[in-house]
Amino acid sequence: MNLEQLIVKDIEESKQGESLNLANKPNASRKMYIESYGCQMNFSDSEIVASILKEESFTTTQNISEADLVFVNTCSIREKAEQTIRKRLEFYNSIKKKGNKGMIVGVLGCMAERLKDKLLEEEKLVDIVVGPDAYRDLPNLIKQVDDGRKAVNVILSREETYADINPVRLGGNGVTAFVSITRGCDNMCTFCVVPFTRGRERSRDPKSIITECKQLVSDGYKEVTLLGQNVDSYLWYGGGAKKDFGKSSEKTKKESINFAILLDKVANTYPELRIRFSTSNPQDISKEVIETMIKYDNICKHIHLPVQSGSSKILQLMNRGYNRERYLDLIDNIKENIKDCSISMDIITGFCSETEEDHQNTLSLMDYVKYEFGYMFKYSERPNTPAARLEDDIPEEIKQRRLSEIIDKQMKHSLLRNQEKLGNTYEVLVEGTSKKSDDFLYGRTTYNSVVVFPKENHNIGDFVMVKINECTSATLKGKSI
Ligand code: 5AD
Ligand code: SF4
């Protein structure tokens, strides 16, 4: 691949939002297929991509075999995620070889950002590489490929929030939707590749967040999840980099909007809408956010609060900004103030220099909190992160054994938390038909527990009171009353 053919566009200088003249290409007859991996933010971004391309008349398809453009929105968080995506790229290649030679393949998101033009050189089947802040440039990049060139734009931005874009809801249930409120992350946890792939943290204009919620309500949606890598650090003071906030006038500071205020605004403006948010960082979640959760019934009583480790030594090496005691104080505070609040977590096991004692500290912290559910991972070293300078010294078998112990414990706690709910009645927002039987519906409670119950005369999108009479560690089962 001739590097001169790689056209890198600076999105900040490009004609943002301007409709390109693709009149000589019948875009309306071109179908786009998009596949997303990784976090909720990626799924949300794919909806932004679909919207940008819809403006250019492209349509979407769920069937890869009829696609003219195939995009894969990628995740770099662990090595395994990247391997999965490489396999998908090989699969696309086989489709291309089998006949669909004109199919354009694009890699979007974190892996695009991490590997940049390497992806074009290594994986000959990739035509377009686009980082998370460059999606507005996609019509232009497609045009370059149409003209016989490969195209890449991996410029990260300090301003881009796609605030004005009304996402096309892809494959959704018409009931729940994601609304992104921040992009990027400034926290610099040492294990994490996100600050490098998604860039500096920036907050989206609250007006555009409210407008998006308004549209969702009028389209019949019943629940939104406000999304950000670290929602509690949301801060809007009329635009500009967050680092400059300290220099702002007192008046600007007074008029600024933090996450608690934003949450209050959304909950207050749409009392019929259920509101969730993710992810909360233990070092940033504030008293005001907890107070706002108490104030509004329509804010769901669930907090995803990744702990990562129960050992203060490991937390320090991870640069998490809190220790075991502070995390546990926070848990006590939440439990004292929000009745039955459900708490979930992420844990990484086998981080550099983690001893058996550190591992036991994680298990004992889990015993204290008894999380409702969690996502648990083996540490995966990511190139160029600060932790990559430490030795990844925990052997694979030990990582695996510790992970199994953590998962076993969580399964027990999840079952216990579900058993506590037997005999109680909960309001369930119905999201769909049960995968196992068309006669059953499923939905979630305010605590984010999944509930399955007989359909009877209920419909997707209804709020239904369900009495719980059975459970597994993953699901509650009941009957509407
Ligand atoms: N290895 C393993 N897990 C990781 N996570 C982030 N980076 C890594 C890594 N290098 C996990 C964290 C985070 C979640 C989204 O992914 O637990 O909270
Ligand atoms: Fe990564 Fe930490 Fe930011 Fe989460 S808060 S995205 S783990 S750097």
Task: Tag the structure with descriptive keywords.
Transcription Regulator spoIIAA; binds iron/sulfur cluster; 481 residues; Rossmann fold; binds 5'-deoxyadenosine; 4 domains
Task: Please outline what is shown here.
The chain is an alpha/beta fold and 481 residues long. The chain has helices at 40-55, 79-98, 110-115, 118-122, 138-146, 194-197, 206-218, 250-255, 259-269, 287-295, 312-317, 324-337, 356-369, 396-419, and strands at residues 7-8, 31-36, 59-60, 69-74, 104-109, 128-130, 151-153, 176-180, 182-183, 202-203, 223-227, 235-236, 257-258, 274-278, 302-304, 342-349, 373-378, 425-433, 440-444, 450-454, 463-471, 475-480. Helix content is 33%, strand content 21%.
